[in-house]
Amino acid sequence: MLRRLLIALGLAAVAGGGLGLVIIAATRQPNHRTLRSAGASPAGTSVPSTQVSSVPTTTQVPGPPTTAPAPGERRALTGRTIVIDPGHNGGNASHPAEINRIVDAVTLGKPCDTGGAETASGYGESAFNLDVSLRLRALLELAGARVVMTRSDNNGVGPCITDRAAIGNAAHADAAISIHADGGPAGGRGFHVIEPVLIAGHTEAIVGPSRRLALDVRDGYGTGSGMPRSTYAGHDGLDDRNDLGGLNLSTVPKVFIECGNLRNPTDAGMLESPAFRQRAAEALAAGLSGFLSGR
Ligand SMILES: [Zn+2]
Fold first, then answer.
1. How does pLDDT run across 7-28, given as a tens digit for each residue?
2. Is 292:248 a contact under the CB 8 Å cutoff?
3. How many angstroms does the Cα of residue 159 sit away from the middle of ligand 1?
4. Is cis: bond before 159, omega within 30 of 0?
5. What does the pLDDT look like over 255-271, one tens digit per residue?
6. Which of 118, 258, 272, 282 is labelled catalytic?
7. β-strands 238-241, 146-149: how paired?
8. 132 contacts 284 by C-beta, under 8 angstroms
9. Where are the domains of the chain?
10. Which of 50, 207, 247, 262 is the most buried (most CB within 10 A)?
11. Other Cβ atoms within 10 Å of 90 Cβ, number
């Protein structure tokens, strides 16, 4: 078994517009087994440590460190808490009684959760969401962040959308992100980031910072992933919705991202690719880092 996980992190410079490429070496973490068992370790990122020394850096940008931390070293996201919410769950579709239970999403009653979308070949959204989320967790933890997941495998049911929000709130997250992929019209392409709207008595405190988070995630993901902005939802890669309990109930800055359209053949080909999912995670890490660093 490999002792080290080596991850190439392409960090988009939100402020400078440049793109730097760095190598991060990390000692094996508890999440490594989950990452591998979920099929999340892509070709080319997990190699013996002796095979990787350095790669050219095109543009130096501020961001996470490039080597394992020295004792006491403070990393770019040290002290920051990020909640990652992989949408849906692998057992949802086979547990309709639990999943269809109506919960209070503030503006309406909604089912606890849903089964999520899938590609024409049957690649499920819940698996995509978790895979990208685990890759993102690894990157953020390398940068020093405390990461809280709303689920960390794809074998369960739920949690309900209300509980997903509550997990972020209880963690006092500096930022929370729900990872999804859409089941849109087959002719529509691309990603969009969804932000909360103003709901009196609920979202006043998070609308402003969530907008900044949405912009940074949109710019990071749009720059780094290669997925275009949506041609069928929202505008300029952004949308806002008042019907998502995960946003309406959040007391911390939060956005959703629909990483692409599983029903579009071109998008599906990308979303089904482990290499794309790694780029997606790196791009999301760049966006979140931009938000948390105020760049
Ligand atoms: Zn979804």
1. 334 343 333 333 333 333 333 3
2. no
3. 13
4. yes
5. 999 999 999 999 999 99
6. 258
7. unpaired
8. yes
9. 72-293
10. 247
11. 18
What is the Cα gyration radius of the chain? 18
- H, E, C per residue of 61-122: CCCCCCCCCCCCCCCCCCCCEEEEEECCCCCCCCCHHHHCCEEECCCCEEECCCCCCECCCC
In 10 A of CB 290, how many CB atoms?
24
Is 195 annotated as catalytic?
no
Q: Determine what percent of the chain is predicted with pLDDT higher than 70.
A: 75
Cα-to-centroid distance, 87 and ligand 1 (Å): 5
Q: What is the dihedral of CA 249, 198, 256, 219, to 10 degrees?
A: -150
Q: Residues of the chain whose pLDDT is less than 70?
A: 1-72, 295
Task: Output the CA 217–ligand 1 centroid distance in Å.
Answer: 17
pLDDT at 59: 37
Phi, psi torsion values for 84, nearest 5 degrees: -110, 125
* 225 CA → ligand 1 middle, Å: 19
Q: Residue 99: what residue type?
A: I
Question: What letter represents residue 128's amino acid?
Answer: F
Residues 6 or more apart from 259 whose CB is under 8 A from it?
Answer: 128, 132, 179, 180, 181, 191, 221, 225, 227, 271, 280
Q: Which CATH class is domain 72-293?
A: alpha beta
Amino acid (one-letter) located at 21: L
111 is written with which tokens? 């089912």
d(CA 62, CA 230): 29
Distance 245 CA to ligand 1 centre (A): 13
Q: Give me the pLDDT at residue 23, please.
A: 34
